[in-house]
Amino acid sequence: MSLKHINPDGMFRSPAFSQGVLVDGPGRLLVVGGQNGVNADGEMVSDDLAGQTRQAMRNVLAVLKDAGATQQDVAKLNIYLAAGQDPNEGFAAAAEVWGQVPTAITVLQVGSARPGVLVEIDALAQVPGQV
């Protein structure tokens, strides 16, 4: 299984994300459901975007690890920010936990189904191994 980061000539190149990711080879698809800044008891860990983002990224990493994958196996992240939040604050906090692992991402500002939730992150990954 391999991921090829697609960054065509003439398009913006960022160390933080890829324009596309091609997943190739044997493996299993892992769909990580929306993770937010809650701990194992379901309690919100912080009132601010940075704290919630760090926890949401830790939660994504925990799901990946349990399935036998790492952030290197993630093809796509979707990041949903509560309307009015500063994406730069979220990106900085995410990088603290995620590291400099480029992947394809989409960031949207939306309303939340749960009061107080400032960020939700889901992911698509290919878990290495035989199908």
From TrEMBL:
Pfam families: Ribonuc_L-PSP. InterPro entries: RutC-like_sf (IPR035959), YjgF/YER057c/UK114 (IPR006175). It comes from the Bacteria. PANTHER family: BLR7761 PROTEIN (PTHR43857), YJGH FAMILY PROTEIN (PTHR43857:SF1). This is RidA family protein.
